[in-house]
């Protein structure tokens, strides 16, 4: 049983809630009795307005939430229709602020994701004059957790640090400035910390000590407005469980604006469900959603690579993955600007030649792109299963083809495996590999789903274990569930080199986590290291894992 499916697990509860929300979203809400008139046009207008003014992306499943939260504003204003309320919001800046406050989610608690504060403490006491930013501070728990960590690191109530705390919601900022919290909000805090940094109030609540409140400066910040009310450089930025509320282009914009505000070598802390590997090359992942801002020299090198169109230095130019005696023509390792001419090359794969296999689900589209961009134009063939609905896989393959040196397309039944090609399983069919004569062909079929998926990663992996054996290099990336784990184990037992993405860099560690639990992975690696690991495995520069 995978971690997500363990009875009573947090991920299981999250999945149940998500399914409940999806069921509610499918209900014909117009047929239910409503206190206020609320049409599809009203909801669309609200989504557009909050995206424009705050960058927040509301999914269709949020319709009930929007109705409930904004209904309070209609009652307060004596309005009967959402159309009238929207007119008020557009003409009244104060009501616009209340509108945004109502739609902002503020879920936080003290020392959330404690490993971040453990990491902070390891270096904080060595840097006097440290400047720290809690971006998305909600009601202040994160900012005060930073302050307590600083006091502990320095052993005093007035450590040499500056802490800035910003949020979009003006109401929670006021709560943060007061620093008063109900007793239950402190239940998870160590009693020693509570006695050192909180003062009990007569009504049973607790208040942050005045010395700590003096360390934190609260201010409103809207990520889509300019300028931001903060000035760098900062030694660390906490922006945890904030980016998930924005569309991808807004996430990229925010991360790009973080770069000049963060000291080279400074740290960026993200939430457990967030990663920025798809959005920025300015940060080096350290694991557990901690990132280091690269030095200016490192960023300049990345910029030069981008200008000349080169890929990451996984394969040196002119370097061969396989001994020249193993096949005619050799493997040139061509990347970057020279890749376009290589895309037309057709070199059929023979028995014993390597084949690369990739399986992924949730979060996999960007993860697959990261891996493929590390491979040169004449790499061994790559077969990809990404859980994706029909009609979307063709466009996904087309996008990959535009940004990778390999030629990428949606798989078709009967195609012959050749070097320099990658195939994405179509959303309606399983993808299998079949031996034919002195080579291999792709086979598609619409048989029943496996592990609730069609295409299924296990179907591809099991077929490859039968016909490729030790010639396969297989990778299982981020995804929910167990699909691919048993197949990866079968490949390992057949002598293949197997790789699973690590938990810190995965959006969801279900599939690779299950593979690790089964002992199916020869290597467990961060996403950015998987491409180079494929190169090492194919070239033979790394010893393969033990055979069973």
TrEMBL record:
Domain CheR-type methyltransferase: 31-296
Gene3D superfamilies cross-referenced by the UniProt entry: Chemotaxis receptor methyltransferase CheR, N-terminal domain (1.10.155.10), Methylesterase CheB, C-terminal domain (3.40.50.180), Vaccinia Virus protein VP39 (3.40.50.150)
Entry annotation: catalytic residues: 361, 387, 483
Alphabetical list of PROSITE patterns matching this protein: CHEB, CHER
Record's catalysed reaction(s): L-glutamyl-[protein] + S-adenosyl-L-methionine = [protein]-L-glutamate 5-O-methyl ester + S-adenosyl-L-homocysteine
Keywords recorded for this protein, A-Z: Chemotaxis, Hydrolase, Methyltransferase, S-adenosyl-L-methionine, Transferase
InterPro entries (alphabetical): Bact_Chemotaxis_MeTrfase, CheB_C, CheR_C, CheR_MeTrfase, CheR_N, CheR_N_sf, SAM-dependent_MTases_sf, Sig_transdc_resp-reg_Me-estase
Enzyme class, first EC level, given as a word: transferase
Residue ranges occupied by any CheB-type methylesterase domain in the UniProt entry: 349-541
Record EC number: 2.1.1.80
CDD domains: AdoMet_MTases, CheB_Rec
Keyword S-adenosyl-L-methionine: yes
Glycosyltransferase listed as a keyword: no
Protein name: protein-glutamate O-methyltransferase
